[in-house]
Structures are given as structure tokens and as C-alpha cells.
Design a protein that fits this description.
By secondary structure, the chain is of the alpha+beta class. It has 11 helices and 10 strands. It has 2 domains: about 90 residues, Phosphorylase Kinase, domain 1 (2-Layer Sandwich), CATH 3.30.200.20; about 160 residues, Transferase(Phosphotransferase) domain 1 (Transferase(Phosphotransferase), domain 1, Orthogonal Bundle), CATH 1.10.510. It has a 5-stranded antiparallel beta sheet with strand order 1-2-3-5-4. Strands 6-8-9 form a 3-stranded antiparallel beta sheet. A two-stranded antiparallel ribbon has the order 7-10.
């Protein structure tokens, strides 16, 4: 620990650990290092890492970021060959932990989480210059007790015009990232598609078999619209994917904010895109009647 750390912060408990990186919950001490604030006040997360350039980049981003999905910056310094980033402490459980406990999420809840993530990532992509997140996965997504969604770990954030530096996690990273090829907004779209697929099906993309089958293969009660969007997001060819986060949100918004009738009409319109659609029309009407008008 550095003199600055010991003077101004008190370590409470560990939050996580990675390669050359540690994260602790800390409490800020009173001015001049005498005593500490109550536990509910001035409590932060402190991330330390030997990868100084990467941590400094994350600190600069958080200091400039203004979005409810991202943690707030508080302090940053370097000492003894390490960087120290102090930021907002976010209580809650990781999406990874919740998925391992539950297996999957209710369909509407999963879509709400995906839309919140898409809105935050769209703000990244819309910055000047545009930025990419590049490491979206359940372990980096926190669900607070209030149900609010937060995104953490911005060490892989980079310029849209840049190149990935050891970015992404197998199972969630787009093919072009793993091949260190050029990437775009569609790279983050792919990772969000993988996260949503996991939430809807309970199938961990990091475990074999690694293929992501259409979501209705796992549960025929799932809506066709989300299945179509997820399939489009997970295309290996980036040019064939959903083009950006705003289009991703547009396609799914009706399933979160729409009325039952609007959802039914959307699902019915998807049926007519297939040859067997007319045969299923009566079945769909019966499902609609029994589901929404018992």
C-alpha cells in the first residue's frame, strides 16, 4: 500500500481479483487521516493494477463519462509501479452469479436488462471520438438490489479507430476481436447478443457445445422477435449483424414497452415472413386469446 492510500483510505473487504489486478471496497477517512466516515458514507471501490497505462485509460474514461450505467470516478494516482483507481462502490450481484443460480431469466426481465445495456453502449458509440467497450460479459454486469443495471471494468475501452489489445472473453467476444481484425459497433452488438442469449436460454456460451442455437430451440414459448434479433446479432460476418445499438433497441423495445396487442401484432407479422405462417395463424390467435384474455 502507498502512503496516499493509507492516509486517505481504509480497506474493508475484497471485491475481486484478476491477473495483476485487485479490487477492494474502501472507506475514505476524515481529512488529515483521522478516523473514518460511517460505513454508508464515502465508501468506494479501489482498483489497483500493474498495467498502469490500461488503468490510466480507464480512469480518464470514467472521469469524463456521464451515464447512469457507469460507475462515477473519484480519484486516481500512481505509486510503486502500480495504478490506483478509486470509483463509486456499486453493491449488488454480478449477472454471472445470478445466471448460475437461476439458469435463465424471465423473458421480459432479460430484455429490460439488454435494453439498459444497449443504451449505455450506444452512449459510448456516440461519443466524439466514438468508443467501444469490447469485453461485455455477465461478470462485468452488476444487478443492484433495486434492479438497476450497472456496467463495470472499462479497461478494454478503446477508440473505434483503434485495435483490440488482448480484449474480449472467449464465448462472448466477436470473431473479429479474437482474430485481432478491424472491429466496429457491431463487435459490441455481438457480445450483447451472446449475453441476451444466455439470459433467455440459460446456456453458458463458455461451455460446450459452443454453438448458440436459436433461442426457441430451448423454449418454444419465447417470442420470435427477440429470437430474430439475437440471431442477427450473432452472425459471424459483421456486415450481416444488427448494425448498431440503436437498431438493437428499436427491434426489442416493443416487447418491453408495448401493449399485449402490439406484441401479438409484431409476432404475427414475423409469422407471415415464412411459408408456413398461414397454417399457424389460428394457433397464434388461440395463444393470444388464452394468454391475454383468459
Amino acid at each position: 500500500m502507498t502512503a496516499r492510500y493509507e492516509r486517505f483510505y481504509e480497506k474493508l473487504f475484497p471485491l475481486g481479483q484478476g491477473t495483476d489486478t485487485e479490487v477492494y471496497c474502501v472507506r475514505q477517512k476524515y481529512p488529515h487521516g483521522t478516523g473514518s466516515f460511517p460505513l454508508t458514507e464515502r465508501t468506494y471501490a479501489c482498483k489497483t493494477s500493474g498495467q498502469i497505462k490500461r488503468l490510466e485509460r480507464e480512469a480518464r474514461f470514467l472521469q469524463a463519462a456521464r451515464h447512469p450505467l457507469f460507475p462515477k470516478w473519484h480519484d486516481y494516482w500512481e505509486a510503486g509501479g502500480k495504478g490506483y483507481l478509486v470509483m463509486e462502490y456499486i453493491s449488488g450481484s454480478t449477472l454471472e452469479k445470478l445466471l448460475k443460480q437461476r439458469g435463465s431469466f424471465p423473458q421480459k426481465k432479460a430484455l429490460c436488462i439488454a435494453l439498459e445495456l444497449a443504451a449505455g453502449l450506444a452512449s459510448l458509440h456516440g461519443r466524439t471520438p466514438p468508443l467501444l467497450y469490447l469485453d461485455l460479459k455477465p461478470a462485468n454486469i452488476l444487478i443492484q438490489d433495486t434492479g438497476k443495471v450497472r456496467l463495470v471494468d472499462f479497461g478494454t475501452v478503446c477508440l473505434l479507430s483503434g485495435r483490440a489489445e488482448a480484449a474480449g472473453t472467449p464465448g462472448y467476444a466477436a470473431p473479429e476481436v479474437l482474430r485481432t481484425e478491424a472491429f466496429s459497433e457491431r463487435t459490441d452488438v455481438y457480445s450483447l447478443g451472446k449475453v441476451l442469449h444466455y439470459m433467455l436460454t440459460g446456456k453458458d456460451p463458455c461451455l460446450p457445445p459452443y454453438e448458440a442455437a436459436p433461442i426457441r430451440v430451448y423454449d418454444r414459448k419465447l417470442w420470435r422477435g427477440p429470437e430474430q434479433t439475437v440471431c442477427a446479432a450473432l452472425q459471424e460476418d459483421a456486415a450481416a449483424r444488427v448494425p448498431d445499438m440503436r437498431e438493437f433497441m428499436r427491434q426489442l423495445a416493443v416487447y418491453v414497452t408495448g401493449t399485449p396487442k402490439q406484441i401479438f401484432c409484431r409476432e404475427l407479422s414475423l409469422h407471415f415472413q415464412k411459408p408456413e405462417a398461414r397454417k399457424a395463424l389460428l394457433y397464434e390467435k388461440n395463444i393470444y386469446k388464452s394468454t391475454y384474455f383468459p
